[in-house]
């Protein structure tokens, strides 16, 4: 058998080297692509779950804000009522209106039903 010429032997080894470089590059690209797909999937899942949590918390915050506004309104009304109850004239009006009480010498006037 004859020995392969140097030129032919070199081209074969260069072909193998070139093929292994392409295979290695392709493997790295596939590994990088796999990593990016996994990372994107994880990021999407995290974004979605946090969006759902934020929507729930926003709804709770809105409800708590409404309750707080109602409580503030009631507090203001009660403060006004307490302030009016300090006035003797207002107490007299309540006594006349709710309990039918009158000051001595006052003549009550009742509406006539027809």
From TrEMBL:
Pfam families per record: DivIC
Disordered: region residues: 1-24
Keyword Membrane applies: yes
TM region(s), chain numbering: 29-48
Keywords: Coiled coil, Membrane, Transmembrane, Transmembrane helix
UniProt cross-references to InterPro entries, sorted A to Z: DivIC, FtsL/DivIC
Coiled coil: 54-88
Basic residues composition bias: residue spans: 1-10
Polar residues bias spans: 11-23
PANTHER family to which the protein is assigned, alphabetical: CELL DIVISION PROTEIN DIVIC (PTHR40027:SF1)
Protein name: Septum formation initiator family protein
Native source organism of the sequence: Paenibacillus urinalis
């Amino acid at each position: 058998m004859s020995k392969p010429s140097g030129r032919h032997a070199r081209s074969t080894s260069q072909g193998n080297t070139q093929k292994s470089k392409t295979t290695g590059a392709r493997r790295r690209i596939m590994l990088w692509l796999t990593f990016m797909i996994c990372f994107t999937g994880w990021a999407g899942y995290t974004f979605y779950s946090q969006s759902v949590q934020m929507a729930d918390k926003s709804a709770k915050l809105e409800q708590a804000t409404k309750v707080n506004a109602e409580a503030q309104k009631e507090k203001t009304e009660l403060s006004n009522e307490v302030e009016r109850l300090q006035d003797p004239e207002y107490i007299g009006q309540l006594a006349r209106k709710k309990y039918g009480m009158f000051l001595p010498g006052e003549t009550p006037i009742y509406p006539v039903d027809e």
